[in-house]
Design a protein that fits this description.
Layout lengths: L4 E7 L3 E8 L4 E8 L2 H9 L5 E6 L4 H8 L5 E5 L14 H13 L14 H30 L15 H5 L5 H32 L3 H7 L5 H12 L8 H7 L4 E4 L4 E4 L2 E4 L5 E5 L5 H14 L5 H11 L4 H22 L14
Parallel strand pairs: 1-4, 4-5
Antiparallel strand pairs: 1-2, 2-3, 6-9, 7-8
Length: 355
């Protein structure tokens, strides 16, 4: 007799709605409990059989994953953007928990990777570094926006330099606007100092991992990009093929086709009509996408094997933007090869191969 129980959890800040379904698809238990570790574990201990649990990726996902993993048979943190059936019909916490349990039983969930506790410190430092870098970029944009709003040209990076700051502030004649610019400059200096501190800790932590040393050998990757790759991907073995990594990094192509078959002289044949290309996939890790695109841009301008590869693509008549996309994919593939096999970068990796 199959005693497997499928548990859907709709998690919120103060409460969790839970639906427990048996292998026949019947709801055997529903309840609402407090979002508290001791109460959650007490509930799980009261259930018998093999426990398969799911909840959506969100603010509480990492904490809840670590809490439940040792106490259940199977744990799936699912991607809420791909739970299409959750967006149809009525919606409530109870209904969402039921649908999650049903999707888990039918194996129709798209899991979000969690694990690799040995990289948890590095992962958190990478998150801090990326967040502060984004905040720094926003403040820099605000500084230039002030000058542009007063028709003061401010191209380049000189406007941010401390040694030229008084000169630039003097161009703003309105005292209150100048004061706002001074506040932005103070915020800019604070974020720069904070990013240097996080960067130093990030590099110190990344040096503890052998894979970081291997990834640093890849042209255009370097110490910081290698550390960010470790923090984002955590392990290369979550990707069976290079195309899975391309999709995760936003480098996969989305296609569309319809009426793929037709009858010709009484025989069903596949249509020769080509599939329409809709562009790159949008459901991806955007930090990884920015990293790979940035690495491709740098690699296409610096002398080396990657620039030669890029030049060869241009010589074939490929448009520059498509050549950079191909180069970004190649860099992603080489990252997977070097990391999975534990080998150093070799220019031979640029030749056609499978990862």
């Amino acid at each position: 007799m199959n005693d497997t129980k499928y548990i859907g959890m709709d998690v919120h800040r103060e409460s969790i709605s839970i639906a427990v379904m048996n292998s026949a698809g019947k709801i055997v238990l529903e309840c609402v409990i407090e979002t508290k570790a001791s109460i959650i574990l007490q509930f799980m201990d009261g259930l018998r059989g093999q426990l398969h649990v799911t909840f959506e990726e969100g603010t509480w996902a990492a904490w809840l994953y670590d809490l439940l993993k040792p106490h259940v048979t199977k744990l799936v943190v699912c991607d809420p953007r791909k739970n299409a059936s959750m967006k149809q019909g009525n919606k409530s916490d109870k209904i969402d928990a039921r649908r999650l349990a049903e999707l888990l039983r039918l194996d129709h969930l798209n899991p979000v990777y969690h694990g690799e506790h040995g990289l948890r410190s590095l992962k958190e430092l990478v998150r801090s570094y990326l967040t502060i870098t984004k905040d720094l970029g926003r403040v820099m944009s605000r500084v230039k926006a002030i000058y542009r709003s007063w028709a003061i040209p401010c191209t380049g990076k000189q406007v941010y330099a401390p040694q030229h700051r008084a000169q630039w502030l003097a161009k703003i004649t309105e005292p209150r606007v100048r004061r706002r610019a001074e506040f932005y400059y103070q915020q800019l200096d604070a974020l720069r100092s904070l990013r240097r501190e996080v960067r130093r800790e990030l590099l110190e932590e990344s040096k503890k991992h052998q894979a970081w040393k291997l990834l640093c050998q890849i042209p255009s990757i370097g110490p910081i990009r290698a550390a960010v790759l470790l923090g984002i991907l955590q392990t290369p073995h979550r990707f069976r093929t290079k195309r899975q990594l391309w999709t995760f990094g936003g480098l996969g192509i989305e296609t569309y086709s319809s009426a793929d078959h037709r009858y010709v002289e009484g025989q069903l044949q596949r249509s020769k009509k080509p599939a329409l290309i809709r562009g790159l996939n949008e459901n991806c890790n955007h930090d990884l996408k920015n990293l790979l695109k940035g690495a491709a841009i740098i690699a296409s301008t610096k002398p080396g094997p990657f620039q030669e590869f890029y030049a060869a693509l241009l010589a074939k008549g490929i448009r520059p933007e498509m050549a950079r996309l191909t180069l970004a994919r190649k860099i992603a593939t080489i990252v997977l090869i070097v990391w999975k096999r534990g080998v150093y970068f070799d220019a031979q990796h640029l030749k056609p191969q499978t990862a």
